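Schema walkthrough. Field components (list of strings):
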Amino acid sequence: MKRIWPVVLALLLAGCGVEPSGPVVAGDAPTGLAPGVTLYFLDAQRHLRPQLRETGRLGTIPEAVSLLLTGPGPDAELHTEIAAVSVTRIQLSTAPELIRLRLPLTVRDVTPSGIDQIVCTALGVHVQSGGSRTTRAQVVFVQSTPESEKRRTCPLFSRAG
Amino acid sequence: MRLSRPSRWRPRGLRARLLVAFVLVTVLGAAVAAWSSAGSASTALVNSTQQRVSAALAGQINASAPQLTYPPDQDALDRLRTAVGPNALVTYRNLRSEGGADLATDALRAAVRTQQRLVAERITVDGTPWLVLGTPVMITVPDGARTPSGIEVYSAHDLTGIEQQIDGLTTTAGSTAGVALPLAVVLALLAARSVLRPVRELRDTARRLTEGDLDARSPPQGADELAQLTASINEMAESVQTSMTAMHRMQSDARRFAADVSHELRTPLSTLTAVMEVLATAAGGMEPDVRESAQLAITETHRLVRLVEDLMEVSRFDAGTAQLRIEEVDVVTAVRDCLRARGWTEQVELTAEQDIVLGLDRRRLDVIVANLVGNALRHGAPPVRVRVSADAAQVRIEVTDRGPGLSEEALPQVFERFYKADAARTRTPGSGLGLAIALENARLHGGSLTAENAEGGARFVLRLPRAGEGR
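Field assembly_structure (string):
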C-alpha cells in the first residue's frame, strides 16, 4: 500500500505542464535564396540553355518571365523564340500542383520551344522558391487556343517529374 | 501489509473497510483515467502547436527569402528577422541580426548544422516553457538540388499559454475525480449495507443460539457465499438442537426410571421391613447360627430401605420437586439434636457459639449433618469434631476428623453419586448417596458444601447464607 502513493503522485505530476525535449527534426528547412534569377534561352541548336541574371535575389515568377520576355541581351550565342512585345506584365495564379501564367502574347508570338522557355523559367523559379518539383505550368494566351489548356513540364527537369 | 501489528489508522469495522476500499479504488481509477487523458491531450496540444509554429516559421522564411539579396548584407538579415517575428536570431557568417531573447542551445545549433533541416527543441527557462526552432535557409537550384546558404534562423516561442491550457485540463480531470468521490461513498455504503445486513442477522442468530434459543434461524437470502454460510449455520443449529433434544430425553428417561424403580420398591420393602420386625422379636429363641443369619438379613434390609429412600430423595432433586420448609431454627440446638438422635454424642465433640438462629429447613439440615458426621465416623478416625460458627454473611458448620484424609483422586469426586474412595471397602453401611444428597440440600438452601484436607484429616465445610440470600 505504501508503495502505491509515490507512483500515483508521479503519474499525476507527469500529466502537468509542458515537458522539455531535446532537439528533434520538425520539418524541411526553408529555401528561396539565390544570387540571381535563371532564365532559359535557346542556343544555335535550339537547345534550352540556362542564363543566370545576377539580380542579387531570386524574385518572383512574373518578374522572371517578364525578364525572359525582354530577351537574352547581348549574348550572341543565345536567342529567344518569343516575339518581342512592349507589354511584359504577367498575371500569375496558382492552383494545387499548377502554376497558371497569363501572358500578353498570342500563340503565334511563340514557337513550341518558346513555350518551353517560359515553362522552364517559371518552374525553375518555383522550385528555387521551395515549390514542388512535380508542379506543372499552364501558359494562357490572350486569344483562346487549345495550347492554353495544356499542362506543361520543362523538358530539362522532366526526369524529376 | 503487516497484519500482526494493529494500526490506529487501519479501520476495524467491515463497513469502514469497504468504504475505504471503494473510495481508494474510485479515486485511483479516476486519477489514472484523468492523468492519461490529460497526458495524451497535452501531448497532442504540444505536438500540434509545435507543428503549427514550425510550419509558420518555414512559411515566413519561404515567403520572404526570394526577395532577399544574396549574399545578404546586414539590412537583408534584419528584414528576414523582422519577417520571422520577435525573439529571433538570424546569422550569416560574421553577420548577426538579433531581436529579443536568444534561447538557442548549443545542442540545437549543432543539430541544425548536422541535420540541415528545421529542428525544434522545448526548454524551460526561469519556469517559462519555450519552443525554440532553428533552421538553415537553403539554396535550391532549378533542378531541385539543395545546398546550405549559410544563413541560419533561430526563433523562440513562448508556450505559457499552452501550459495554462494543459493545467486547465489537469484541473478539470482532478475535479472530475473529485465529483466521483461522493458517488463512490454512496455506492460503498449501499454495498456495505447489502453485505452487512445478512452478517448482522447471522450474528443475532448466533447470539440467540448461545443464549439457549435453539429454535433461532436466519432465512438465507439470495445465492451468494453469505447465503451459503447462513444455510450452513442453520444446519448446524438444526443438528445441535436434535442432539440436545435427544440428550434431554435420555436424561429425563433415566431419572424417571430411577424414580419409578425406587417408588416400585417401596411397597415390597415396607412388607419386608414389617416381616423383619417380627423376625427381630423372635430372634431371642433361635439357634445361635440361625440368629446370626436373621441379624444379617435385618441389617441388609435396613440398608436397602435407606438406599431406596436416598434414591427417592435424589430423584426429587433431579425432578426439581424438592421443596424447602423454612422455619426459624437455632442451628446449634438442631445439630446437637441430630447427634443425640443418632447416639453420637459421646463420639463427637461439638463446639459452637450460642444462639445462631437461621431460617432453614430443619429436616434437611439434619440430613446434611447426619451424612457428614456419619461419613466422618465411618471413613475417618476419632476425634470427630463439629464446629458451628457464624459471621454477618453466613453460618459455617465444619466437620473434621483425624483420619487419613481424602486422596488426591478422591477430592474432586467425593460428592459424586455412588462414589467409593476405596474400591476394596464396597460393603460399607452407607448408600453411596449421602454426600451427594448433602450437597443438593446445601444448594437448595443457596449455600455450598466443600471438602478439603486439613489438620491431618478430612474437613467438610457447609456454608449457609444468612437472611435467605441466594435462594
